[in-house]
Amino acid sequence: MARFRFKVNGQQRTVDTDPERPLLEVLREDLRLTGTKYGCGEGQCRACTVLMDGRPIVSCATPVRSAAGKAIVTIEGLAEGDRLHRVQQAFVEEGAVQCGYCTPGMILRTVALLEQHPRPTDAQIVDALDGNLCRCCGYPRITAAVHKAAGGAR
Ligand code: FES
Ligand code: FES
Description:
154 residues, alpha+beta, 5 strands, 32% helix, globular, binds FE2/S2 (inorganic) cluster
């Protein structure tokens, strides 16, 4: 057992826990941030993607000790009040959400992509999101939503 401090969605949080516990488990069970999804639990589907210091990580395969002193952003941290983040808004407008299970991870990875490439090409989108699995196979709409969020249309 050890104490860890890190920021989550702009707020300082403290948890006392086993250093090897997956960050995903701490977010969902200790901090009640259930927007981050448990998919495979083995680092293979990216449903559990969150941002750590702005970079996407798979939280199921990240021990909580790695988050110490870092800034984590989960899907709950994107909207401002009633106003959705532009990536969330684009996913809604393009109908890029079916069951929604992959959606938080897709959106967070898109946020990181647009930081790096404000107007990404199809190839850059595929490169960024390729490992994020969508069991509903919504990939064409997801790609369209990324373009829309970037200010372009397809
Ligand atoms: S739940 Fe983390 S990669 Fe699948
Ligand atoms: S929308 Fe169902 S898994 Fe992607």
